[in-house]
Input
Amino acid sequence: MEMAPSIRDRHQKRNHQPMPGQQGASKTEPAPIEIKLAHSPDSDDAFMFYALATHKLSTPGYKYTHILSDIQSLNEAALEETYDVTAISFAAYPELRDKYVLLDCGASFGEGYGPIVVSTKAVKGQELAGRRIAVPGTKTSAYLTLRLFEANFEPVVMPFDKIIDAVQNNLVEAGLLIHEGQLFFQEKGLHKVIDLGIWWQEQTGLPLPLGGNAVRKALGPRLGRQIAKTIRNSVAYGLEHREEALNYAMQFAREMNLELADTFIGMYVNKWTLGYGEKGRQAVKELIVRGTRAGFLPEPPVVEFLSEE
Output
């Protein structure tokens, strides 16, 4: 398969943290073509890409370079087509549909759980109107879902890992937690206001779609499908070799111990990550449709998936 030589040269330099396990070119073979793969520096993404990052998978002709950055930064970088393959929030997809197509694997869904709004006080969800709420980015699916639940609040954007401290120090009245903060906020003395994954499931009967992987349309469907197969194989390898993938992912686990990290990874790397299925695709479409109807996302409410067929 061919890729235009300019693909490697068009990427803008960004501050990033390389993932261990970069692949090198053989001395006797032509230099492989670089595929820049961007995702979050979190234990679930590290688990998902363990096999690819540590050479457990063969990718002849292509070298995958892993770039790690928070999801809000990745959403913004995608607007410039900075990376060939990137994790994005589903809520950011409508602004990217002309440049990227969603892969049918590598996604995170919350099935009966999801981002959580917390506060230092016992507050009901109906009391969030008008409050200052820390959020991890205005292009995240967590933020969109919160707005669908309660549109009238003052968002205070900050890095996701600063939100618990901001709530504890009363810099904001509540905080929207993604990632591992969902599991240990109670240890920090905070109260759950609402679990948006539960609310979404009650409203729709569907899992809450949070983030997926997207590939640049300019690479063409043939290469896009090969990339999708590679990602699916990496996810499958991690699930089949859970202990070694979990041990690798612990370097990105931040405050979590092994047991907590295992729980967190199980929440967001599972059957939905291997493939959306009809229900998963329906969930993504439902989120986009509801966000568009509410005026939070640009028209039209159309979603395109690239399957492996």
Notes: The two ends are 16 Å apart (CA to CA). The chain has two domains: 5-109+208-306, 116-204. Residues 5-109+208-306 form a domain with the D-Maltodextrin-Binding Protein; domain 2 fold (CATH 3.40.190.10).
